[in-house]
Amino acid sequence: MAKIQHNNFLDSVNEVFTDAEREGVLHLYAEGDSFNGRTIGVKNKKLFHFGTTGYLGLEQDSRLKEAAVEAIMRYGTQFPLSKSYISNPLYRQLEEKVTAMYQNPIIITKNSTLGHMGVIPSAVDDRDAIILDHQVHWSVQSAAKVLKNRSVAIDMIRHNDLNMLEDKIKSKLDKHKKIWYMADGIYSMFGDYAPMNDLKTLCTKYPQLHLYIDDVHGMSWIGKNGTGYALNELQELSENVLLFGTLSKTFGASGAVLACSNKKMYHKIKKFGGPLTFSAQLEPASVAAASASADIHLSPEIYELQDELESRTQYFNSLLEETELPLVDKNNSPVFYIGTGMPKTGYNFVNRIMEEGYYVNLGLFPAVPVKNTGVRITISMHNQKEEIKGLVEAMKYHFPKALEETFTNPTRVFKAFKLEINRPLEKPKQQSFHVEIKDSIQQIDKGIWNKCFRHQGVFDWDGLKFQEEVFINNQQIEHNWIFKYVIIYDDNQHPIVAAYLTIALWKDDMLSKESASKGIEEKRKTNPYYLTTNVLSLGSLFTEGEHLYVNEKHPLRKEALDAFVQKLEQLEQEFSTKMTVLRDFKRNEPSYTYFQGQGFVRIQMPSACTIDLVTQDSMANYVSKLSSRNRQHVRKEILAVQPLLQVKVETSTSQKQLEQMTQLFLNVHQNNIGLNTFTFPKKLFQTMSEHSCWEFITVHLSEAHDLLIGVMFCYKNGNHTYVPAFVGLDYDYVNKYHTYRQLLFQTIKRALELKMTKIDLGMTASFEKRKLGAIIEEKFAYLQTGDNYTLELLDILE
């Protein structure tokens, strides 16, 4: 399996969003001639609004509205000058008020995203290091990644894992001047907190530690003068803390604010902070509205508003306690998250709630892992107790129905979020099929298995027996795989779904850029299992092809697939795997929409290459049907050098030659960091040489018979499919003798001699294979992870 394409992440996000849009829960338009905050018009219905981030409702306050209108009438719709030259007349007053709120120097920015882009590159020195919480807002991560161009060290910890943070700090103390930990004060999806007091203790223990806190979701509804959760916990803003707040969201206006007590750093950022210098300043209406809001924040009224909002959030919490809804994190913030697990369950649940008259948001990948989809609910001053109660009653009623309609259950949801289950487990429903799972291919009837997987690579019955011999009872943990075989039969013992699975240790960067893998491999010299994960995979890293058999015409196909996915979840929990990978699907396969809704993200894999030999009877005839350009390529680069080479087909080899073949394979493996996998156990090639289904196509120099310069390791799947599974090359001779192309040519020739009907050339090197007539077909995989930590860490390392 080779690298995924670089744009796959964006493609995956696009597919998830497109799916959500198609289900009617994303990219909607609000309707109506006015908006009061309590209700919102959606799809010709007036819904109670539980999706706002204006928790105190100040965006509807008449004082802010009147100030904004007056500012437009006096100063126009915008003040089109850079703030570095001259500020709108209203700015001075706003800055004085916000400074009074924080009692520290402040900088006002157009928004928090541009603020981070301006502040982080200015505050962080080239000798510093950055550690990101993996759930810190995208805008912070994006701004931090810009510093990779200056070779600033960037690392990441799992969410709120202070033990991991301390280990990272210790490892950087001697190498870096300052160590910046970047986190949110309140996290926008689950509403959970950064452990500010513990972070403060770490700062005392490690003076090099500095904190960069984005507290835009903690603003206004808590803290002195509404300055937010983080400052409320810290009590004072020390010089090693940069704190971002917002003038939008709960503040009710527009813009963002940086508070900085370090005067030297403050002046450095204010004088030249990238976007802070060159971006347009806030519009007069926004400045005036923010100034009016600041007056409220500086008055006792802010505490009355905070108390009123707290009474609503406590009421909502108390109602939720009386239900069995999976609240992911119980806290006092106005942000709540009810887990649904799979996206399709989330779509169903949200649509049901909207039909009942309540608007809520859906938490989706990449903001959360795909199988941690859920409903994000926010409580605001606009919400009255009667509609808060009505929302809880609607969720209590519709949650089990959404689960039932999407063929899932509460236990699966609770386990997806690692929540404690305080209810009896559901009894399995009576099914008109049965699921068998075996630990060895030898426990399965050979005829039944081969009927499902005939002509499929190296995983017919004999191929899997071979794999079990090789990948069990080895010394190194990465060479030991657990094999699982799933067959779902109907009552007549006919397979509906069948698959072979492996649980094995994978390198996390297998699908990353080569630049990231090179850096990670340096760390593996001292820590061989750095960034490795136990993966539950359809098929294995030894095979390519259609590893999942589905009888698409069977009336129980859908139910059987549901049972298969639940079996995957059970195996994931049993073996504590962190990722599930379903591989090698065609673009328009029926499984596409099915797995998308089951909590998997689709990514594009390298294309598969095959050759159809059904109508071919000789190599000469085969070559004659190539394009004129490719025939010329065969003549000049393959046939012309054949007299200089000795090509053989070996069914058994000497120990010396086997060692040479092994070394050639290792050459290719080590040279191809773009396909960064563990090596295979040494006994692999010995077992091949003893197995009747394997043979070797070897290339020697004619003038030096002992000099092996290339080998193709080929598997014979019955009398149908020829599989050149691996290649070995001596790179000193590859260009001169076009060894790889010669091996491809000889592979086709050998398959014709054996009267095979198909050659499965696998993935990668599709350009070379196309020259020899290979058919190229797009392939896709579906990924599911317990969290996004590894994906995001690898993204910052690339």
UniProtKB/TrEMBL annotation:
Family annotation (InterPro entries): Acyl_CoA_acyltransferase, Aminotransferase_I/II_large, AON_synthase_class-II, BioF2-like_GNAT_dom, PyrdxlP-dep_Trfase, PyrdxlP-dep_Trfase_major, PyrdxlP-dep_Trfase_small
Pfam families hit by this protein: Acetyltransf_6 (PF13480), Aminotran_1_2 (PF00155)
Requisite cofactors: pyridoxal 5'-phosphate
Keyword check for Transferase: yes
Domain BioF2-like acetyltransferase: 629-769
Keywords (A to Z) from UniProt: Transferase
An example molecular function term from Gene Ontology annotations: transferase activity
Stretches assigned to the Aminotransferase class I/classII large domain: 48-393
Protein name as it appears in the record: 7-keto-8-aminopelargonate synthetase
Phylogenetic placement of the source organism: Bacteria, Pseudomonadati, Bacteroidota, Flavobacteriia, Flavobacteriales
